[in-house]
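[step 3/7] fold_predict: job queued, chain A
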Amino acid sequence: MDVPGKGADANRETADNTRGNGTLVTEFINPAQDPRWDSFVESHPFGWITHLSSWQKVLEGSFPHMKGHFPALVDSSSGAIRAALPVFEVKSWLIGNKLVSIPWATLCDPLVICRAEFELLAEATLRLREKLHAGHLEIRSLHTAELLNDGMPEIRPHFLHHYLSLEKDIDKIQKTFHRTCVQQRIRKAQESELTLQVGDSPEHLDILYAMHLKNRKQKRLPPQPHLFFKNMWEILSQEKKISLLIAQYRGEPIATLLLFKFKGRISAEVAQIDESFRNMSPNIFLFWEAIKQGVQENYRIFDFGRTAPNNQTLLDFKSRWGTSVSNIYCFYYPVEKGQGVIDSYSKRYKLLQLLCHYTPEFVQPYIGGFCYRHTG
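[step 4/7] structure written:
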């Protein structure tokens, strides 16, 4: 995997040599109607599921306050898309409107490979910001941070990203795991009558969501809307880009793991567990099964997703799998607007946790619906 910036630098010369005979012009693409878009995402080195037209359908079908805009650089001669900066308008009467690239996405780099491409797209995006009266622009970056850093104020590494290379024998991969915290717990889980079920129906998704409600309550966080999970499942499963693993104990589901699959990457997106069975390590069991699945299906990278820098428990869990780690940066324009964003360091975040802690469980979906109506 490329570290931030280096992958982009390595591809600059290739990019310049494949511009074609035409000049680059800025266009706004509608991915739902333009077949060029998904082909472009598939071919771009930083393209991911959340850049695809299917993710646009998921977000716009789940959150009425979001609308996607897709500025792209198009070769005037061939008509081919060369670069793009997908952003979503997120409207809120409570905290103000903004543009985000891209809501609810761990990986969402601008689809550029040189500084010049980003500058042209940033100009178009900032004009869009003015037209829409959006308070600020937020761009999240893993691979392209150095390209953005020259022209946009950097706040700080906003998340940490853990990933595991799958390009070696499964036994060698297992030996990189922490001996007591992972290897021994894998063996314990396998000896505990746990069985694996591959989810293939809306009913299986309901199992995940029921655990999601309980886990979010325990963590004092609002649950994401059920419609978001439903749309993810219905849209991405048609394209075979999503998978659901369920750990069962004597026929009862006790943990779930939702995975994204695209190109050479398999990504753990949502992990849930019935806390009363934690001593049986069903979460360890599912991650191990997912890693084995990734090797068998010739994926190159297993993603453990993003983690807030102050979530030490989750950081420790992911580091014990022999992972590498890199920074996911957040860039804001104007910079002072980004300073007020709700995150795990803010007072508003802590107040939200108190609200979730003291409200009854049946109220949680309503709190989640309200909160996610204003965020992205």
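[step 5/7] annotate
The radius of gyration is 21 Å.
The first strand starts at residue 24 and ends at 29.
exit 0
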